[in-house]
Specification:
By secondary structure, this protein is an alpha+beta fold. The chain has helices at about 1-50, 60-70, 70-75, 130-135, 240-290, 305-355, 360-390, 405-420, 440-455, 485-490, 500-505, 515-525; strands at about 75-80, 90, 145, 155-160, 165-170, 190, 210-215, 220-225, 230-240, 400-405, 425-430, 435, 460-470, 470-480, 525-530, 535-545. The relative contact order is 0.07.
């Protein structure tokens, strides 16, 4: 049981640690996976933020994605490009309609691309020389043009402003009235003599990337938002593959955990068994040490120094116990043996005195009383001698085949003769024989019969039963009477123990009869026990090996 508790405790603690580490690992893997996806999105986006794309670049962007990432993988990528005025320059054909500007409530829209304002003058760099040269040798109102660094031809008009000749770009196709463009001509550009005035364009402002996970009917998407002063770029990837990997790792973890717990349980059991093996050996040896086997000792154990020391202490205690018990047994046997001779002589003298005393005289009655006490004392000494021999394992049995049925029948007749006021019932199977010592077995039956008569009600019942079951003989002698209290049921076989006064105070006895009867039964490889009381019926059961 202790090994089971240790194994269960190890499984519990290891299981908690294993599950905790597993959940933590899955959480870390999930975070690492999202971080990897975010880095891929950021790499894809920043590569396009760092260039100045020519006209028509975004119209072929989806074809470029298919060429770079392949047809299958590009289907899991979605891209949307917006200009500084939040107009869509490009949107993937697979872009979910459910993902809009309102799908990102936590996004800081102050990062959105905005057109240049007069407040940004100190951050602008000087316009390209082409812008100044366009109005050289021109008159106010005349047409002019130049090619900007992106290779785009910018057409416009040279106008006079604050006494200076400046270039103003013509509106592009699709411009709204008053719309400002991030290109040469977004505001009047001074001519060469106006180099001291700030001009175009703004330096590129890199936005802080923003990432969010959006769920749509077409799947779960990881969206990254990034941009510069020219464009805002939203790049997304389908999370189906990510969740498939996560589910695969989770299922593998759930499959491994029970196997790991079983291995841990088995390991805990083996370790506990090996650790407790010396203790189990000590326990088995101690259980085998009885009154008749006090010479047994716990074998020395090759283990840690604590257990060998414990074995030495136990063996030393057993040595002292064996010595003390041997002395007590020898004293009881010697005392009983030495008392037998003087008691026999005293019994003979008293018997002779009773015979020679006048019949019916006070002297004869006195001698008769003394004779009864001597006989009682002699019976006690005889019982003590038998018990001492049984304790020493030297109880001599003169085994012979006896008719136990006839012995129980005789005991029933004796009970009826001794107590005619009691009702005697018999359920005796005839012809049952056992191999036993006739005198000792007769003493057991007489003792049980005597107790059934002495501890009975005035008009009570005595029942004798004899049967054979499972190749064993069962004798049950029952009597009505005051039930034996629960606290006394385990002690009735102890030597010199008497049940409380309410049950047996008025009955003479030594408290050795039941102890002696059980020792004799066990010497015959049987046993004597007190059955649970039922309806004021007290039953002592004797079991013996059956002799066919």
């Amino acid at each position: 049981m202790f090994r089971i508790k240790i194994a269960l405790l190890s499984v519990l603690l290891s299981g908690v640690v294993l599950v905790g580490l597993g959940l933590y690992s899955l959480s870390v893997m999930n975070k690492v996976g999202l971080a990897r996806i975010d880095r891929e999105l950021l790499t894809l986006g920043e590569g396009h933020l760092a260039i100045r794309p020519p006209r028509g670049y975004w119209q072929n962007f989806e074809t470029s994605l298919r060429f770079i990432y392949g047809e299958e993988r590009s289907e899991n990528l979605i891209v949307q490009i917006r200009d500084p005025w939040n107009e869509v320059l490009f949107k993937s054909s697979l872009w979910p309609a459910e993902i809009t500007e309102n799908s990102f409530p936590d996004f800081d829209h102050t990062m959105d691309t905005r057109p240049p304002t007069p407040d940004d003058r100190d951050e602008r760099r000087a316009p390209p020389p082409e812008a100044y040269k366009a109005c050289e040798d021109k008159r106010p109102g005349s047409s002019a043009q130049f090619v900007d660094p992106r290779g785009e031809t910018v057409k416009g008009t040279c106008e006079e402003e604050d006494g200076k000749l400046v270039f103003r770009a013509d509106p592009r196709k699709g411009d709204r009235p008053g719309q400002v463009h991030d290109r040469p001509g977004n505001r009047p550009v001074p001519a060469p003599q106006g180099l001291n005035q700030p001009g175009w364009p703004m330096p590129r402002i890199k936005k802080k990337p923003y990432f969010a996970t959006i769920q749509t009917p077409t799947g779960v998407w990881r969206i990254g938002i990034m941009g510069s002063d020219r464009i805002t770029m939203m790049v997304g990837v389908n999370m189906a593959g990510f969740y498939e990997d996560a589910n695969r790792y989770r299922n593998a973890f759930l499959s491994i955990v029970p196997i790991a717990l079983l291995l841990l349980a088995g390991g805990g059991w083996v370790i506990a068994q090996r650790a407790l093996k010396p203790v189990a050996l000590i326990t088995r040896t101690a259980e085998g040490i009885t009154v008749r086997a006090l010479d047994r000792r716990v074998p020395l154990i090759e283990a840690d120094r604590e257990l060998p020391r414990l074995v030495e202490v136990i063996n030393s205690m057993l040595d002292r116990l064996e010595k003390s018990f041997g002395q007590a047994v020898r004293f009881s046997a010697d005392a009983a043996h030495e008392l037998q001779t003087p008691l026999t002589i005293l019994q003979g003298e008293l018997d002779d005195a009773v015979q020679h005393a006048p019949v019916g005289s006070e002297e004869q009655q006195r001698y008769g009383g003394l004779l009864e006490e001597v006989q009682r004392l002699k019976a006690i000494v005889q019982k003590l001698l038998i018990l001492a021999r049984a304790d020493a394992g030297r109880l001599d049995l003169r085994l012979e085949t006896i008719d136990l049925s006839a012995m129980i029948e005789s005991a029933a007749e004796d009970a009826a003769a001794m107590a005619p006021h009691l009702q005697v019932e018999k359920q005796i199977l005839p012809g049952v024989t056992v191999k036993a010592d006739r005198d000792l077995m007769g003493q057991v039956v007489r003792n049980l019969t005597s107790n059934a008569v002495k501890y009975n009600y005035e008009k009570g019942l005595i029942r004798f039963q004899l049967s054979v079951r499972d190749n064993r003989v069962h004798v049950a002698i029952s009597n009505t009477g005051v039930p034996i209290p629960a606290k006394d049921r385990e002690k009735v076989f102890d030597r010199f123990y008497r049940v409380d006064q309410s049950r047996g105070g008025r009955v003479a006895g030594t408290g050795l009869g039941l102890s002696l009867a059980r020792e004799i039964a066990r010497a015959h490889k049987g046993d004597l026990r007190l059955d649970p009381a039922t309806a004021d019926l007290i039953t002592f059961s004797l079991s013996l090996p059956y002799q066919h």
